[in-house]
């Protein structure tokens, strides 16, 4: 399957002699955005790399070296596809690029997730991840967050009337106080989440996203 796909994309390597074949890489998804655009492939290696970056950036430093099971990789694949599509949309609309100082600050925050600089360097070495590639992934994350906030932002605001209705529907008095502010925050969060979901559905509908095969535990990834 992978060899056929690579041949279709013009990326096929020379066919090994019988008995000498080995899996060098697996392709887990192909993205065309928009649907008629040239294909971009996501390899298993790239997916694992992106999953580790995302998890460590969120404080799960144990994911830097521990095996990632197939279910974790399936979730990571959905996340990565959404990141790619939102980043493409931000570029299409010429959303401001992330400047070098912002990227360096984000890179420093990532480094500080580790117990020491030596632990950070071992992570880069063990994953064969160039620091430049890490910086690009972190910059994409900033760009995606900025774009999503620009799309949601004002539209996610909740009026006083909406808060009043929400409180009355639950038998509470719509008076000033902590309960009112908590209700406003909850409504705003629910609205923002729904708008992000709609945005992602819209972007997915424009693209041709093909997940090639249910992710299996690859060598070195078994739990």
Low-confidence stretches: 1-17, 216-223
> Average pLDDT across residues?
83
Separation of termini?
25 Å
Helix count equals 8
What is the topology, as strand order, of the major beta sheet?
A: 2-1-3
Count of beta strands: 3
* CATH topology type of one domain: Triger factor/SurA peptide-binding fold
Over the alpha carbons, how many angstroms does the gyration radius reach?
22 Å
Proportion of residues in extended strands? 5-15%
**Order of helix and strand elements from N to C terminus:** HEEHHHHHHHE
CATH architecture label name of one domain: Orthogonal Bundle
- The share of residues in helices is 55-70%
Q: Which geometry do the CA atoms define?
A: globular
Question: Would you kindly provide a written description of the structure presented here, covering whatever features stand out?
Answer:
It is a single chain. By secondary structure, the protein is mainly alpha-helical. The chain has a domain at 2-7 and 24-155 and 206-211: Triger factor/SurA peptide-binding fold (Orthogonal Bundle). It is built from 8 helices and 3 strands. A 3-stranded antiparallel sheet has the order 2-1-3. Strand 1 (27-32) and strand 2 form a beta hairpin. Helix 3 (70-92) packs across helix 6 (131-152) and helix 4 (100-111) packs across helix 6. Mean pLDDT is 83; it is low at 1-17 and 216-223.
SSE topology sketch:
Layout: H1 2-8, E1 27-32, E2 40-43, H2 44-57, H3 70-92, H4 100-111, H5 117-127, H6 131-152, H7 160-169, H8 178-206, E3 208-211
Antiparallel strand pairs: 1-2, 1-3
Helix pairs in contact: 2-3, 3-6, 4-6, 7-8
């Amino acid at each position: 399957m992978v060899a056929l796909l690579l041949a279709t994309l013009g990326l096929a390597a020379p066919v090994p002699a019988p008995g000498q074949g080995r899996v060098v890489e697996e392709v887990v998804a192909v993205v065309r955005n928009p649907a008629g655009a040239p294909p971009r492939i996501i390899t298993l290696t790239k997916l694992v790399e992106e999953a580790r970056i995302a998890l460590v950036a969120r404080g799960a430093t144990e994911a830097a070296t521990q095996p990632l099971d197939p279910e974790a990789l399936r979730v990571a694949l959905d996340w990565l596809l959404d990141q790619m599509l939102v980043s493409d949309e931000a570029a299409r609309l010429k959303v401001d690029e992330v400047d070098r100082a912002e990227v360096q600050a984000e890179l420093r925050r990532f480094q500080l997730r580790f117990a020491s600089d030596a632990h950070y360097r071992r992570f880069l070495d063990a994953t064969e991840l160039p620091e430049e590639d890490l910086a690009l992934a972190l910059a994409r994350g900033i760009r995606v967050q900025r774009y999503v906030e620009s799309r949601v932002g004002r539209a996610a605001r909740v009026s006083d009337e909406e808060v009043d209705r929400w409180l009355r529907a639950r038998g509470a008095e719509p008076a000033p106080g902590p309960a009112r502010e908590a209700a406003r925050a909850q409504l705003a969060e629910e609205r923002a989440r729904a708008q992000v979901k709609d945005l992602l559905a819209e972007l997915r509908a424009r693209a041709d996203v093909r997940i090639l095969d249910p992710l299996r535990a690859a060598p070195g990834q078994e739990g």
